[in-house]
Amino acid sequence: MEHYWVEGLFANRQGVRKARQSGVYPPASIEPFAKGFWADSPAEAVQQATEALQGGEWVEGPRVSRKSEEQRMRAMGAPELPGLNAPAPKKRSRP
User: Fold this and answer.
1) Are the C-beta atoms of 7 and 69 separated by less than 8 Å?
2) I need a labelling partner for 56 at 20 to 30 A (CA). Which of 6, 9, 15, 71 fits?
3) Which CA distances in Å does 40 have to 23, 51, 66, 69, 88?
4) For 42-68, what is each residue's pLDDT tens digit?
5) What is the pLDDT of residue 95?
6) pLDDT digit string (tens) for 74-93?
7) First-to-last C-alpha distance (Å) of the chain
8) ∠ at Cα 77 (80, 87), nearest 5°?
9) What's the count of helices (H) and strands (E) in the chain, helices before strands?
10) Residue 94 pLDDT exceeds 80
11) Nearest to 33, CA basis, from 61, 70, 2
């Protein structure tokens, strides 16, 4: 088994219900999805992600990758936002 990251946009269950009536997803019902899954293939990871939507539907199809968005951005050397970087370990002074 390998670790796959599935990312995309989905409409939650309430948005799907409203879209069936009006034909368009309400903007407030669209949410980002990013989660890691252990699977044998990318197709199996997408299947697990679709089940995790709990009645929602993909608005922007799922993208499967081996690295998360955070890992890709760090590998590119992108700047980090102030206050969001990993805290430095505290040094203990010996008495």
Assistant:
1) yes
2) 71
3) 36, 16, 12, 21, 36
4) 999 999 999 999 989 999 889 999 888
5) 65
6) 888 877 777 666 666 677 77
7) 49
8) 40
9) 3, 3
10) no
11) 61
Torsion angle of C-alpha atoms 4, 5, 6, 12, degrees rounded to 10? 120
**Residue 64 main-chain phi, psi, to 5 deg:** -105, 135
**Which letter, b or e, does each residue of 9-46 get, where b requires 16 or more Cβ atoms within 10 Å of its Cβ?**
ebbbeebbebbeeeeebeeebeeebeeebebeebebbb
Residue 54: CB partners within 8 Å, gap ≥ 6?
13
Q: Report how far residue 94's alpha carbon sits from residue 56's, in angstroms, rounded to the nearest whole number.
A: 55
Query: CA–CA separation, 19 vs 10, rounded Å?
Result: 12
